[in-house]
């Protein structure tokens, strides 16, 4: 099991703990069909280290597990279900983070999300 070149981490700042079991969807926006290419749920530590291909029979999307393509990407964090499971309200049913991979990609891109019911923050992680 190898770590994907795109990883995520969610911390729920209202309780000071990782946000586990959050559905995350990865979309490659620089393609004609901008549908999710991969999905994952955050683990107990609030992390996504590897993705499941949205369409395993589509060999053109297998690169997400090994080598990145330059272009625009989006990670959608489905936060409504997370907060509903915690019996808490939220203003944001999901959080979309759009980022750009340059022509000469680095080996790894980490997308952290600091999340609360009524706000969120992100930055380029390492």
Automatic annotation (TrEMBL):
Catalytic reaction(s) noted: 5-hydroxyisourate + H2O = 5-hydroxy-2-oxo-4-ureido-2,5-dihydro-1H-imidazole-5-carboxylate + H(+)
Q: Which GO terms describe its biological process?
A: purine nucleobase metabolic process
What protein does this entry describe? 5-hydroxyisourate hydrolase
The UniProt entry, under CDD domains, shows: TLP_HIUase
Q: What are the alphabetically sorted keywords of the record?
A: Hydrolase, Purine metabolism
**Which Gene Ontology molecular-function terms are recorded?**
hydroxyisourate hydrolase activity
Subunit-structure text = Homotetramer.
Give me the segments passing through the membrane: none
Return the similarity comment.
Belongs to the transthyretin family. 5-hydroxyisourate hydrolase subfamily.
A Pfam family it matches = Transthyretin
**Summary of the function given for this chain in its UniProt record:** Catalyzes the hydrolysis of 5-hydroxyisourate (HIU) to 2-oxo-4-hydroxy-4-carboxy-5-ureidoimidazoline (OHCU).
Ranges of residues in domain Transthyretin/hydroxyisourate hydrolase? 1-125
PANTHER family noted in UniProt: 5-HYDROXYISOURATE HYDROLASE, URICASE AND TRANSTHYRETIN-RELATED
Report the EC number(s), separated by commas if there are several: 3.5.2.17
Q: Which InterPro entries match?
A: Hydroxyisourate_hydrolase (IPR014306), Transthyretin/HIU_hydrolase_d (IPR023416), Transthyretin/HIU_hydrolase_sf (IPR036817)
């Amino acid at each position: 099991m190898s770590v994907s070149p795109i990883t995520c981490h969610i911390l729920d700042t209202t309780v000071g703990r990782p946000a586990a079991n959050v559905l995350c969807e990865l979309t490659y926006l620089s393609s004609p069909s901008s549908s999710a290419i991969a999905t994952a749920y955050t683990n107990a530590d609030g992390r996504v280290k590897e993705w499941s291909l949205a369409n395993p029979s589509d060999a053109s999307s297998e690169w997400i597990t090994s080598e990145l393509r330059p272009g625009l990407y989006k990670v959608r964090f489905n936060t409504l279900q997370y907060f509903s499971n915690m019996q808490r309200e939220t203003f944001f049913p999901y959080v979309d983070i759009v980022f750009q991979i340059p022509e000469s990609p680095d080996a790894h891109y980490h997308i952290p999300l600091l999340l609360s019911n009524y706000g969120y923050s992100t930055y380029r992680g390492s």
